[in-house]
């Protein structure tokens, strides 16, 4: 029997039920209960099936249902062989694809010797909502049909099995995506294929281990967060000079946990309402990043003042739109609410990462522990970091020139980005040794430049001191003259 047959049979049964309801109305009250019981038995005997429906979008939800996504993935690997019409979905950045049954198809599955029927269908939403569902207004659903005598096994075991396996498959095959809010309230994305991993990131090995442990623990702590009554999210503050690997670390985190990245550009966000709209569209298993947070907000938490041209342009735009609504703006409290207010509880399993070059400029409320749970400093290149880069870029683990490089790194401030740049061969004639020599030259130039700058500053300080002395002398003379 196919699901199509079952559906036809179901419609027929609906007709019978209608007739039953009509007949029941005319029966004397004392016969009604008996009639109802026997009729139900008869129905169960003829049509012993139960159908459960799983909608792609549930009422009042803007994200695709987790159950629907998991079932979709589960069926793609378990039952797509049985479908006659299939849909191909490109995954992992176009490198592979998975097949799933097309709309209005049906497949069968087996669990502990029990036969289960799955079917897919779709409908067009009549209601236009604030946020569109997916690419259009189509809403899909899966229907699961099984014999009622297996109800317990299906609802208590099979469904858990489908959801768990589907989620694992989803994480494995979903391509990494990098989202950005280039319009006020909508995200757009590109495929994220950043090659940075914790294996390529040069930093103190103990620190790296701590971060990896922290991330791993977080990703496995669903029950713990539920138990302690906290939403399942964690904040990281990455700080350090430009070129020390903050962005590379975010990419490594995303690759390690297989999360999406939402790169939130605060300057494009008009007000707290827009921020909330963006937040509720972010998916679980994601990293929300606000880079250079010190450049987006000033110390009072208000957005940086727009320059005159920007203000004029905005005014023109408003005049064109015919709006004179008072402009409300993004505030620090809006941002804090975004991180850990009630709104942050929609969706789960999310990291929030701030990066800054000037940690001392940030409002303490923004980065206090509990909000930004882990503060990670990325700093200038030390000898250990250099050795890691030399191994990664040149396959060199030790070299006599290391003895020259080590003290130079202590005496200068060179970022891992600059060291890495020197270690990349620029022509086919260059080899590892010449790259190391290039680095030494660059470090020496930097050391010399720093020495000249320090000399200059010293000379300037001396000049200033002499000037102050002369001014004081002149002032004293004037005071004496005035007194006499
Ligand atoms: N710690 C590091 N380990 C390995 N490579 C690094 C590291 N730091 C920097 N690099 C290299 O330098 C490049 C620039 O680094 P990245 O963009 O991650 O620095 P950043 O701290 O985010 O800088 P900014 O503050 O300017 O955004 C990277 O693409 C990477 O090749």
Automatic annotation (TrEMBL):
Which keywords appear in this protein's UniProt record, sorted alphabetically? ATP-binding, Coiled coil, Hydrolase, Magnesium, Membrane, Nucleotide-binding, Transmembrane, Transmembrane helix
The record, for InterPro entries, names: AAA+_ATPase (IPR003593), AAA_N_dom (IPR025753), At3g28540-like_C (IPR058017), ATPase_AAA_core (IPR003959), ATPase_AAA_CS (IPR003960), Mitochondrial_chaperone_BCS1 (IPR050747), P-loop_NTPase (IPR027417)
Q: Which residues are in coiled coils?
A: 433-464
Q: Which GO terms describe its biological process?
A: response to stress
What domain of life does the UniProt record list for this protein's source?
Eukaryota
Indicate yes or no for the key word Hydrolase.
yes
Q: One Pfam family this chain carries?
A: AAA
Transmembrane regions listed in the UniProt entry: 6-27
One annotated GO molecular function is: ATP hydrolysis activity
Which residue intervals define the domain AAA+ ATPase in the entry? 232-382
Q: Which reaction does it catalyse?
A: ATP + H2O = ADP + phosphate + H(+)
Q: Which cofactor does it need?
A: Mg(2+)
Give a yes or no for keyword rRNA processing in this entry. no
In the record, the note on similarity to other proteins reads: Belongs to the AAA ATPase family. BCS1 subfamily.
Name the chain's protein. ATPase, AAA-type, core
């Amino acid at each position: 029997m196919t699901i199509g047959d079952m559906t036809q049979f179901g419609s027929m049964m609906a007709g019978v039920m209608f007739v039953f309801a009509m007949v029941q109305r005319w029966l004397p009250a004392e016969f009604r209960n008996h009639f109802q019981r026997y009729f139900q038995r008869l129905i169960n005997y003829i049509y012993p099936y139960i159908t459960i429906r799983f909608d792609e979008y549930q009422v009042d939800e803007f994200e695709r249902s987790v159950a629907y996504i998991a079932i979709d993935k589960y069926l793609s690997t378990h039952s797509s062989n049985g479908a006659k019409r299939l849909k191909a979905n490109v995954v992992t950045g176009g490198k592979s694809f998975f097949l799933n049954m097309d709309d209005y198809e049906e497949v069968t599955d087996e669990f502990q010797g029990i036969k289960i029927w799955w079917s897919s269908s779709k409908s067009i939403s009549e209601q236009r909502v604030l946020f569109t569902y997916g690419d259009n207004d189509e809403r899909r659903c899966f229907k699961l049909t099984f014999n009622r005598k297996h109800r317990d096994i299906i609802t208590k075991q099979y469904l858990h099995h489908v959801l768990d396996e589907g989620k694992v498959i989803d994480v494995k095959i979903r391509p990494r995506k990098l989202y950005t809010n280039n319009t006020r309230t909508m995200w757009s994305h590109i495929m994220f294929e950043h090659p940075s991993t914790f294996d390529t990131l040069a930093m103190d090995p103990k620190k790296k281990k701590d971060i990896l442990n922290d991330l791993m623990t977080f990703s496995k702590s669903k029950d713990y967060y539920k138990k302690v009554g906290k939403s399942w999210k964690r904040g990281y503050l990455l700080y350090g000079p430009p070129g020390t690997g903050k962005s590379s670390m975010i990419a490594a985190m995303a690759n390690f946990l297989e999360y999406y990245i939402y790169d939130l550009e605060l300057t494009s966000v008009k007000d707290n309402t827009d921020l909330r709209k963006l937040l509720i569209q972010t998916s679980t298993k994601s990293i929300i990043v606000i880079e250079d947070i010190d450049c987006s907000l000033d110390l009072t938490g208000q957005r940086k003042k727009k320059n005159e041209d920007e203000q004029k342009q905005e005014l023109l735009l408003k005049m064109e739109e015919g709006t004179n609504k008072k402009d409300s703006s993004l505030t620090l409290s809006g941002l804090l609410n975004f991180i850990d207010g009630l709104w942050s509880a929609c969706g789960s399993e999310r990291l929030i990462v701030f990066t800054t070059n000037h940690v001392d400029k940030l409002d303490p409320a923004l980065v206090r522990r509990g909000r930004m749970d882990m503060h990670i400093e990325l700093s200038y290149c030390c000898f250990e970091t250099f050795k890691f880069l030399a191994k990664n870029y040149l396959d060199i683990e030790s070299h006599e020139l290391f003895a020259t490089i080590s003290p130079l790194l202590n005496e200068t401030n060179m970022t891992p980005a600059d060291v890495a740049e020197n270690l990349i061969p620029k022509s086919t004639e260059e080899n590892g040794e010449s790259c190391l020599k290039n680095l030494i030259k660059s470090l020496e130039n930097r050391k010399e430049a720093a020495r000249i700058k320090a000399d200059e500053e010293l000379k300037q300080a001396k000049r200033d001191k002499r000037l102050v002395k002369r001014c004081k002398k002149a002032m004293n003379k004037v005071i004496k003259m005035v007194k006499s």
